[in-house]
């Protein structure tokens, strides 16, 4: 694909973006080079997934301790337990959809939402973008979400970018996928969970984090809801400054996720010694 045909190509040239890309690559390469990864990568991946799910649920308002997630088996039908269960299911499902993403990203998004919702939902709303007049629940930007027609058009445009491929760095594509979904809020519920799971799919599928050991969700939660919302507002503005700030924010989140996994590796190493 030529740069003139690639809608994401200009984003890579925004001030600070290349620095963020380079910094992320160094952080990811560093954790992949850890000696524990040579022997226990599956354990590290499983722990990263659990911590990522916990953090994603925290951003939805269900901030549970990690040990509570390990202990619980019933996550209930309402309130925080339901949110935590949805985050766990969605994070786990993301790893099963890599082969579908490049050919049919909209199918992946539908599946992620269906899994998050735990079934068909009232009125068959789960697993499909919202229709005109249907409400949106969950935390989000202060502004009203775009209407259903705009959502449909922008989802189609996003899907074309994914299917056609982009020369933009993986961090840029992952940030755009996350930002677009979190801003559009295309489903009636669990949009944040779906957006962060889709970002995970991009990071793994692009080869930047092929074993899914750098939970960006952890870094998003660590930076806090206010910073997350502010950065998303920059993305929603569409300005070069806002887009660059959002990509930088996502880069920091990924680096913090890599740092979290470094701590996991160090703990495993001490335990094995």
Structure description:
The protein has 273 residues and is mostly helical. It has a single domain, classed as Orthogonal Bundle (Fic-like fold), CATH 1.10.3290.10. 66% of the residues lie in helices and 0% in strands. It is built from twelve helices and no strands. It has helices at residues 17-32, 37-59, 66-71, 79-94, 98-101, 105-117, 148-164, 170-184, 191-205, 216-223, 225-237, 240-272. Helix 4 (79-94) runs parallel beside helix 9. It is globular, with a radius of gyration of 18 Å. The mean pLDDT is 93.
Q: Could you write a compact summary of the structure shown?
A:
Residues 121-147 are annotated as: Disordered. The protein is mainly alpha-helical.
Indicate the topology:
Layout: H1 17-32, H2 37-59, H3 66-71, H4 79-94, H5 98-101, H6 105-117, H7 148-164, H8 170-184, H9 191-205, H10 216-223, H11 225-237, H12 240-272
Helix pairs in contact: 1-12, 2-4, 2-10, 2-12, 4-6, 4-9, 6-9, 7-8, 8-9, 8-11, 8-12, 10-12, 11-12
How many structural domains can be distinguished in the coordinates? Answer: 1
Q: Which residue ranges are poorly predicted, with pLDDT under 50 across at least 5 consecutive positions?
A: none
Main sheet specs: none
CATH class: Mainly Alpha
What percentage of the residues does DSSP assign to strands (E)? under 5%
Output the CATH topology: Fic-like fold
Helix/strand-derived category reads: mainly alpha
Multimeric organization: single chain
Shape-level CATH architecture: Orthogonal Bundle
* Strand count: 0
Helical content stands at 55-70%
What is the alpha-carbon Rg in Å? 18 Å
Instruction: Please trace the helix and strand order, writing H or E for each element.
Output: HHHHHHHHHHHH
Please state the overall shape, judged from the principal axes of the Cα atoms.
globular
Give the N-terminus to C-terminus distance in angstroms.
49 Å
């Amino acid at each position: 694909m030529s740069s003139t045909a690639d809608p994401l190509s200009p984003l890579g040239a925004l001030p600070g973006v290349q620095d963020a890309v380079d910094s992320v690559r160094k952080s990811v390469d560093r954790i992949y080079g850890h000696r524990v990864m040579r022997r226990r990568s599956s354990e590290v991946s499983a722990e990263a997934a659990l911590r990522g799910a916990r953090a994603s649920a925290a951003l939805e308002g269900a901030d549970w301790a990690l040990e509570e997630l390990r202990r619980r088996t019933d996550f209930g039908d309402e309130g925080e337990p339901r949110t935590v269960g949805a985050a766990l299911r969605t994070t786990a499902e993301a790893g099963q959809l890599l082969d579908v993403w490049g050919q049919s990203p909209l199918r992946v998004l539908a599946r992620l939402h269906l899994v998050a919702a735990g079934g068909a939902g009232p009125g068959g709303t789960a697993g499909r973008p919202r229709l005109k007049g249907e409400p949106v629940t969950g935390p989000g930007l202060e502004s009203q979400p775009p209407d259903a027609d705009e959502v449909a058009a922008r989802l189609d445009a996003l899907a074309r970018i994914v299917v056609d491929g982009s020369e933009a760095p993986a961090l840029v594509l992952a940030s755009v996928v996350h930002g677009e979904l979190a801003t559009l809020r295309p489903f009636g519920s669990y949009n944040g969970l779906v957006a962060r799971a889709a970002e995970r799919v991009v990071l793994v599928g692009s080869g930047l984090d092929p074993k899914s050991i750098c939970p960006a969700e952890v870094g998003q939660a660590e930076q806090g809801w206010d910073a997350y919302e502010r950065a998303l507002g920059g993305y929603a503005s569409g300005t070069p400054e806002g887009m660059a700030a959002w990509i930088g924010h996502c880069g920091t989140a990924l680096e913090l996720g890599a740092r979290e996994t470094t701590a996991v590796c160090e703990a495993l190493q001490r335990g094995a010694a």
